[in-house]
Please model this.
Amino acid sequence: MTKAPVKKTSGGMLPWLGLALLIVIADQLTKTLILGNYHLGDATFITGFFNIVRAHNTGAAFSFLASAGGWQRWFFTGIGIAAAIFIVWMLRSSAAQKLFSFALACILGGAVGNVIDRSLHGYVVDFLDFHWAGWHFPAFNVADSAISIGAVCLILDELLRVRRAR
Model:
């Protein structure tokens, strides 16, 4: 009796790891451009609701724990590394699930991009500044955008999975 060949799951996750790598490259390239052309606090008006700025975030999303005294740099770096390891593990077993894997790849690329910043600079470089009528959304970057897109896709994937189960 011949056994069916064992299918390698790592080959299936390579496109997703490639997407994550593209996100890291885009994130780091844009941050390098900002660091090379802007001083902290500099801003360029683009439209009535959008500016390019240079901001440093020593905390997490929305500057959570930004003024915590320095320990948060290593705490958030550790969380990013742990999340990256967990996501790669998840991708190994679910690479065929396209939306789910796309979401994980986006989150992975964003997490690694921000871990690189924390490791190199001690802060995350933010530069996208959306505002309206004097109110500014906290500045963010490509990595943050990828994480947000990934989170939305995870929610959508779960909603679709529940709907299919009915």
Summary: The radius of gyration is 19 Å.
